[in-house]
Every structure is written in structure tokens, then in C-alpha cells.
Amino acid sequence: MTFVKGDDVATKVVAWQERHGRNHLPWQKTRDPYRVWLSEIMLQQTQVATVLDYYERFLARFPDVAALAGAGQDEVMGLWSGLGYYSRARNLHKCAKAVVDQHGGAFPQTAELLMTLPGIGRSTAGAIAAFCFSQRTAILDANVRRVLTRLLAFDGDLAVSRNEKLLWERATELLPSTDLTVAMPRYTQGLMDLGATVCTPKAPRCDRCPLADTCSAFALCNPERYPVKTRKLLRRSESWWLLVLLGVEKSVWLERRPPSGIWAGMHCVPVFPDRKQLDEFLAPIAASAADVRSWELPPSLHILTHRDLHLHAVVVIGDLSIGNGSDGAWFSEAQWSGVGLPTPIRKLLDNTRQRELL
């Protein structure tokens, strides 16, 4: 790792961001912490192009933190449906409630206090504090981590906590030290923009980078070596069997998923680990109904960060009745269209509707 003068880096990043950075995004035109916070949560592991529509819809329905805090979880999850990583939506709702209940509806103005709120980690807290309150505090999202490890030729394994801590220290040293009201928001955005558009994971555009003349990785001709992280995510593959029950008046039987795990707390069709258990659940339902039709759809693959889900769907239609002991309810088309459904389940129901089965 090499030494780089902080003020020199900050000056170059601020100047570059003003001329070449992204300055057109809706959350860049405000210092409202509610809007900045919403964008930061949505942008975690999600592309800007995808977030834009969701961001506008959320603000149209929940224009401020009090409106979001007062909403029901199902409505929040319904608006979030399709963005993925649904724990973000649950924490978003919890955080809004905490801001209203514990802080009188005003977001705290320091990264330290922001980190006490549900779903706000150190980097997100730093971004809100820098953008909205010009606090001299660092961020280390994936893009910024890549920029800084290359700039410094930081070869410490970031899977080791002490190396992560050291990088935070170096990131703090590089922050602007003067004119923070203007410099902190633009510097923070500049690092994000560099990582997203110039200092990309593969084939970085070093000829366009304002830090090329001070970048140690560029001097060593090996920017793609950084960042270093040896711990790899272990992937698993699972088969899930989905039972789509279509009852009278175009209703669908939905159950709420467990409070933790995949699709936690969301509505979903019944899920089984194999066809045998699905058939055992279905047998008494089908036996008590007249004119029952059923078929199995071709399997599909749904890829999550840590898991591959091989989805097998069985559709059953008829005048169906389910015992009172079952943890679920019938939802009309208008109802299920507005609740939080996992993306593959919503697609499954939409495709079924398009086939004029609903």
C-alpha cells in the first residue's frame, strides 16, 4: 500500500465530478435526508436504471418519512416487489417508524446516530451524512472500495476485519478538509461515479480517470488485481415446488413466508421441498372439489445472490376449499396485484392471468 496525499485526491475528484460526473439523477437534486436515504437503500446491489421507476413510485405514494412509517407492511412490500433483496424493504419500513417514534420525524444529522437506525450500515450512514449534512465522513460501498484500493494499491485481504478497518482509516484520511459544505457531497458522489463509470471491475477506463497520475495500481499496470478478497460466497442449489391454487372468482391462495430466510414475510403460493409433499397437501383439497383441473409447468431457474432456486410449479383450478388450519387466505386479482410478492411468483401469476386462466 502506498501513501497518497488526501487534499490532492479530494480536489481532483470534486473537480471531475462537477464536469464529468452524474448530476442528473433525481436524488442528487436534494439534501432531503428522506429522499437520499431512500435512494441509498434502493441502490444497494441494484442498478440505477432499475431504481429510477421504483424511486418515483415510492415518493408518489410516500412523500415523506411519516407517510412511509404510517403505511402497512403489505403496501410497502407490494411497492417494493420486483426490486429484490426484500430485507431492505422490511428494514426501510422499520427505519421510517424509528425516525418518527424516536427522532420526531427528523433524520439524525451524524453518521454515528444514523447507524443506530434499522437497515443503515456504516457506508449508507456516511453517504446520508455527507450528502445532506456535509459531515466529514467516509463511505465504502463496492464502487468506492474498488476506487480506493486501486488508488492506494491496497493489497490487504478485505475478508479480514483488520484490513477492512485499515481501509476505512485510509478512506477517512483522504476526505476533503476545507469547504466541506460543497466538497463533501461532491467528493462522495464523485467516488461513486468513478467506480460506476470509469474504475469498473473489468477493463477500467484509466485514460479517463482524474486520479490516474496518482493511482498506484495504474502505475503498477494491474488495477484489476484490486480489491483483494479471498472469502468466496458459497452457492447452493435447491428445488422448490410451488402450488398455484386457483379458486372461485379468479382468487389465488397465498400464504405468508416465515419471518426469516428467502422471501421472508412476503406473500407466496405454498412452497414444498418435493413433489411428494405437495401432492400430500393437495390430495384432500382436490378430493373435496368438483371439476378439478391441474397441470405442471416447465421448471424455471431463479438466481439469488447465494442460491439457485429450481422452481417447479403445479397449477390447480376448481371450486377449491382449504381447511381452517391452513395459514393463508384467498386473494382476488385486485388484492394479490397489490401485495408484496416475490418476483418469480408475481411473474408466475401474471403469466397464468395472460393465459386467461385467472
Helical content stands at: 40-55%
Number of helical segments?
A: 15
Shape: elongated
Cα separation of the termini = 61 Å
**How is the main sheet built?**
5 strands, mixed
Output the helix-strand order.
HHHHHHHHHHHHEEEEHEEEEHH
What percentage of the residues does DSSP assign to strands (E)?
5-15%
Q: How does the helix and strand content classify structurally? A: alpha+beta
Q: Can you tell me the residue ranges where pLDDT is under 50 for at least 5 consecutive residues?
A: none
Question: Can you describe this structure?
Answer:
The chain has 358 residues and is α+β, with helices and mostly antiparallel strands. The chain contains 15 helices and eight strands. Strands 1, 4, 5, 6 and 7 form a five-stranded mixed β-sheet that branches. A three-stranded antiparallel β-sheet has the order 3-2-8.
